[in-house]
Write a structure and sequence with these properties.
5-stranded antiparallel sheet, TY-Chap_M, alpha+beta, single chain, YbjN domain-containing protein, about 30% helix, TY-Chap_N
C-alpha cells in the first residue's frame, strides 16, 4: 500500500472573471476592430458593389428609425458614401443641430451635394479606406449613437459578393431571408463546447453562428433593452457563463449588498453581486453533458432579468445602465446625448 496522499483534483481557475473586465476598454476595442475590418474590406470593393451598414432597430429600441451608412464603389478608383439624414427619419428620431454639425465636421457634404442624393454624402479615392472607415465608424458610434458594433447589421450587394466579403468584426452580416442557423439534423454532441454554444445562440438570434457578434475575449454579445448580456465559454471546468453588467458607476453600500442578496435568494437560478462599482448578474450552465435547452433557458432568464433589474436597481441606488433608455425616460444620471446638450432627440449611448 502506498503511503502517498491521494492527489487532489485540479482546482477550477477563473482568471477571466467578468468582474475584472474593463467595460469601457472592451467597447473601445470592439470599435477599433470594426474600423480596421471595415478599412480592409472597403479597398476590395469591386465597381458597382455596395455595403449598407444599419443600426439594428430591433436591438437598439429606435422603432422604425433606420440610422445607417451606405458605401458604393462607383468606378474610376472612387467610392461614394451616404449617411442617413432627417428626411429619412421619423420626427421623434431626427438629428439635432449638434449632430448635423458633427456630420459636417467629419467631412460629410450636406444632402443633395453628392450625386443629388437626399442623404449626407462623401466621395473619395477607393484606396483611402482607412480614412473613410474612420469617418463611418465615428458617424455610426458618435452621431447615430450605436452603443457597440454588435448592434450593426450589414448587407453586401450584389448577393454573390457575400461569399468573399470579409466579416466586419462584431457587426452582423444580414443574409437574404434570414432563417435560423440551428437545424434539427445537427448533432450538437459532435461539436466542441464553443461550437455548440455558438450554434444554439445563433438559432436564438436567427443568425448564422459565423455572423454572431463575438469580441476579442470570445464573448457573444446580446442586447436586451437597456442591458447587455454576454455569453462566455470556460474550459476549466467546462462551463458556459451567461452574465451581464447590470449597473455601472454605482456606490457600493451595505444596503446594496443586502438588496442583492435578497434578490439572489428569490432568483430561480443565478446570482447578483457587486464588485467595485459594478453590479453583475450571472447564470452558469454546465458544459459537461451540455444541454441546449439549459443554455436557451439561461439566456432567456438573463435577458429578461438584466433589462428589468437595471431599471429597478438604478431607481434605488443610482449609477448607470449599460445603455441609456432610448426614450430618454429615467436616464438623468446617464451620459448626455451624443448630439450635445441642445439636441432635441438622441438615439442611445455607449460607454
Amino acid at each position: 500500500m502506498s503511503d502517498e496522499a491521494p492527489s487532489k483534483p485540479a482546482e477550477a481557475t477563473f482568471v477571466d472573471d467578468p468582474a475584472d473586465m474593463d467595460l469601457g476598454a472592451k467597447v473601445t476595442e470592439a470599435w477599433l476592430d470594426f474600423r480596421r475590418a471595415l478599412a480592409s474590406a472597403l479597398v476590395t470593393l469591386p465597381e458597382g458593389a455596395d455595403v449598407e451598414l444599419t443600426l439594428d432597430p430591433s436591438a437598439s429600441g429606435v422603432g422604425e428609425a433606420l440610422f445607417g451608412v451606405t458605401v458604393r464603389a462607383t468606378g474610376n478608383g472612387a467610392v461614394q458614401a451616404f449617411a442617413v439624414g432627417n428626411p429619412s427619419l421619423p420626427p421623434e428620431h431626427r438629428l439635432g443641430r449638434a449632430a448635423v454639425g458633427e456630420l459636417v465636421a467629419l467631412g460629410w457634404s450636406p444632402p443633395g451635394v453628392v450625386n443629388g442624393d437626399d442623404r449626407f454624402g462623401l466621395q473619395q479615392p477607393v484606396g483611402d479606406g482607412t480614412r473613410l472607415a474612420g469617418v463611418i465608424t465615428r458617424t455610426l458610434r458618435d452621431v447615430y449613437g450605436t452603443p457597440h458594433p454588435a448592434f450593426l447589421v450589414y448587407t453586401v450587394n450584389p448577393d454573390e459578393l457575400r461569399e468573399t466579403f470579409p466579416p466586419l468584426a462584431a457587426a452582423r452580416s444580414q443574409p437574404p431571408g434570414g432563417g435560423p442557423a440551428y437545424d434539427d439534423h445537427i448533432d450538437l454532441s459532435a461539436l466542441s463546447l464553443p461550437e455548440q454554444v455558438s450554434t444554439v445562440i445563433g438559432a436564438m438570434m436567427n443568425t448564422p453562428p459565423e455572423s454572431l457578434p463575438i469580441d476579442r475575449d470570445g464573448d457573444i454579445g446580446i442586447r436586451s433593452g437597456s442591458a447587455m448580456v454576454f455569453v462566455r465559454v470556460r474550459d476549466n471546468p467546462p462551463l458556459v457563463d451567461v452574465f451581464s453588467p447590470v449597473l455601472t458607476d454605482v456606490t457600493a453600500s451595505e444596503q446594496l449588498h443586502v438588496r442583492l442578496a435578497e434578490l439572489t435568494h428569490r432568483m430561480p437560478i443565478g446570482r447578483l453581486y457587486c464588485i467595485g462599482d459594478t453590479v453583475w448578474a450571472s447564470v452558469p450552465v454546465f458544459g459537461r453533458d451540455f444541454q441546449a435547452t439549459h443554455l436557451m433557458l439561461a439566456v432567456q432568464v438573463m435577458t429578461g432579468l438584466a433589462d428589468e433589474l437595471d431599471d429597478r436597481l438604478h431607481g434605488e441606488f443610482g449609477g448607470k445602465r449599460f445603455f441609456a433608455d432610448p426614450t430618454g425616460e429615467g436616464a438623468a444620471d446617464d451620459p448626455p446625448s451624443n448630439g450635445g446638450p441642445d439636441d432635441d432627440h438622441h438615439t442611445g449611448m455607449y460607454l
